[in-house]
Amino acid sequence: MSDSPLSPAGMERSDALVLFGITGDLAKKMLLPALYRLTESGKLTVPVIGVAAGDWDDDALRRHAREAVVAAGTDIDEAVFERFAAGLSLITGDFADDTTFARLRDAVAGFGFVTHYLAIPPSLFTTVPAALAAAGLNRDARLVVEKPFGNDLDSARKLQDELSAHFDDDHLLRVDHFLGNRAVESLMVSRFANTLLAPIWHRAYVDNVQITLAEDFDVADRGSFYDRVGCLRDVVQNHMLQVLAFLTMDPPSAGNARAQGLEKWRVLHATRTMDPADTVRGQYDGYRDVAGVQPDSVTETYFATRLFIDNWRWSGVPFYLRSGKALALTATEVVVELREPPLELFGGEHSRTPANLIRFRIDGDTGIRADLMVSKPEKGTGPLTVPVGVDYAQVLGRQELPYENILHGAVEGDPEWFAFFPTVLECWRIVEPLLDPADPPVAYARGSWGPRSADRLPGLRGWHELGTRLFDAGQVH
Fold first, then answer.
1. Which residues contact 42 (CB under 8 A, 6 or more apart)?
2. By CB neighbour count within 10 A (0-12 exposed, 13-18 middle, 19+ buried), where does 253 fall?
3. Which helix (H) or strand (E) holds 116?
4. Is 171 labeled as catalytic in the residue annotation?
5. Is 350 annotated as a binding residue?
6. Helix H or strand E encompassing 392
């Protein structure tokens, strides 16, 4: 392998996948349905060995897996599920008990290389790797760690140090499920594979960028978890800043994950830390009544901020980020507003021609849309805005679930779908001034777009309206 820092990491393909926490909530909602889909597509050909507390046996696990796949809305093909179930087995025991790992060692004996996937609470992120090492199970193996990777900058460094004592960086992968989303990856493809877009992705043409991750549902039964985390740690520090990196990075000089990671690090390193004066924190009405939430909680369920990137490409361009729960609708969308033409030639007497917008919908009905101006037939009227774009579902068919790509990458040893540790540190640095503020969040009504004060972030002329879908029926041209 080349010694170049741009060379891809030499990761081995796995002969077995060990899934810690296979009976947990994440596995039920995301991992088991994704593993079924991978079996269906022929991409999962290795056994899956679950490790969990409790008194289940293999048959109970297989029944649970069927229920999880059905609950995900998947029509089960019995032949596919039979293949999937045949590869499932379970080891039960306490994660603090050495005999649990002795039984696991016996179960993986004979497999050449093993991937250990931690779908477990963060409190166990160091306990399990240490036990794996004590049992010799860190040899010929790699470790996959779910988010959150730390709780702040210092804890992220400490976690890295503790994990590195048992798994080196070429055998350690960090999950951010947004990185498994094909539509997020398409941000980079759209920019660098199309010379139509590449030349205008620059401060000379871009006026501002808005990134929204909105959810119309509340915290439901996750009150005790969410109250310790809040919107900033839950989605902004990881998901939204990873989207920002894809959107703003320079083109990598090689087509591999390490080269991409270095470019993401460069642009995040140039991003200013968040300014409390440019930030609005909100909390929806009724949040404090949720079970598990402290009655005097100051945890934010809404977060909006303005960011700047101090480099040659983006200097002076504001990036507006907002996310929240119990908002008007569910949508994850990037809106890039281009600069207005230097002269007004086509607007009406009392109006200006709207700016061109480029929209990327990266969750739900994914796609890319550009709002272009065309002439209206009526004399004396301004141009008409016409959407032009691509609905990914119509063009590409079913898109893989993010966890299909993550689990396949974990088994195959493909780091493309995972977070680069230096970028994780930069993300924590960027959000650090806002992690634990003393001021209470601003109340906002459920079903709204959050606190009205977020509409008045410095320099913001207004948030671009988002629809329930990127394109209305018959709107794609």
1. none
2. exposed
3. strand 114-118
4. no
5. no
6. helix 392-396
177 is in an annotated binding site: yes
Domains, in order of start, for the chain: 16-175 (3.40.50.720), 179-402+416-456 (3.30.360.10)
Nearest to 302 by CA among 158, 418, 445, 182: 445
Q: Any binding-site annotation on 408?
A: no
Beta bridge partners of 213: 323, 332
pLDDT by 10-residue block (mean), the chain, 477 residues = 53 95 95 97 96 93 96 94 97 94 95 96 95 96 94 96 95 93 90 91 96 95 92 96 96 88 97 97 97 96 98 98 97 95 66 85 91 73 80 84 95 94 97 93 97 96 92 62
Residue 359 pLDDT: 96
Q: Are 371 and 356 within 8 A, CB to CB?
A: yes
User: Cis ω on the peptide bond leading into residue 387 (within 30° of 0)?
Assistant: no
Report whether 94 belongs to an annotated binding site.
Answer: yes
CB atoms within 10 A of CB 67: 12
Angle between helix axes 402-412 and 32-40 (nearest 10 degrees) is 70
Count of H helices and E strands in the chain? 14, 15
Q: Which pairing describes strands 172-174 and 114-118: parallel, antiparallel, or unpaired? A: unpaired
Closest CA to 229 of 173, 294, 306, 274: 294
pTM of the model: 0.93
What is the β-pairing status of strands 357-361 and 367-374?
Answer: antiparallel
Active-site residue identified among 64, 171, 239, 408: 239
List CB contacts of 404: < 8 A, sequence separation 6 or more. 34, 37, 38, 41, 43, 180
**Sequence letter at residue 448:** S
Q: Cα separations (Å) of 171 from 207, 253, 410?
A: 42, 24, 10
Half-sphere exposure of 295 (CA within 13 A, CB side): 0
Residue 149 annotated in ligand binding: no
